[in-house]
Amino acid sequence: xxxxxxxxxxxxxxxxxxxxxxxxxxxxxxxxxxxWQASLRIADDTFIVRDEQPPVDTTLMADxxxxxxxxxxxxxxxxxxxxxMITYTEFTLGxxxxxxxxxxxxxxxxxxxxxxxxxxxxxPAESAEAGLVGDEAHLVxxxxxxxxxxxxxxxxxxxVLAVGVSDETAAQLDTVLDGCSVKTVSFAAGLDTCSSxxxxxxxxxxxxQTGREFIMELRAAACGRFIPxxxxxxxxxxxxxxxxxxxxxxxxxxxxxxIRDLLP
Length: 264
What we know:
The protein has 9 helices and 12 strands. By secondary structure, the protein is of the alpha/beta class. The protein folds into 2 domains: 3-140, no CATH class; 157-262, Rossmann fold (3-Layer(aba) Sandwich). The strands form 2 sheets. The chain has a 7-stranded antiparallel β-sheet, sandwiched between helices. A 5-stranded parallel β-sheet has the order 9-8-10-11-12, sandwiched between helices. The longest helix is centred in the middle third of the chain and has 19 residues, at 134-152. The chain is elongated, with a radius of gyration of 20 Å. The two termini are 22 Å apart. The model is unreliable at 119-156 (pLDDT under 50).
């Protein structure tokens, strides 16, 4: 579906999963560009909308306001009690500012309070794979959301971002890694590129401290929390923050199996 349909599904009918070129729904959350939390559905008639400039050029915030207005809702306050607790608990984001939309302030306060005190222990985990719960389910679900968004956008089914890797080595990997597209970027451009294109997997040259520090910066950034990382590193030890280690002295063909093990 297109982004307008995703937005309508989010604001209008309570959809919990939908994918568009730039928007996707994950439970009660509306994400932009695969990672930026734009809005959270507190209840059918109460939403919080992020009061910040989006990281990409988009009309989303104006479109979202129009959709909520059309639903009969209005802005009833900013950063009301309970909002920060909800955003921190549900997607670990405590520093943002949020506008609350509801029919009136009393309804908003009641729904926020109900959300804060909601018992979630016995609620089934929303997962892309049956049988997974907790953090494991969240990781798999996030990978599925991003993969679905990329397919709808017409992008390659698996985009491998090679950070700090030479063009020659990346070209060899691209040749032997069937069904994948390998794109190279420098360490300086790595985080920005990651947040803008949402790769399926990242290969990092971690043969020195620069690469190892980049992996930790990637894990701290929103764009890199759920993307698997394969690190080129000597000695066979997996660098902190990576899921697999690749031998930098070996031919790229030998990296195919461990990389495929990480691909969704």
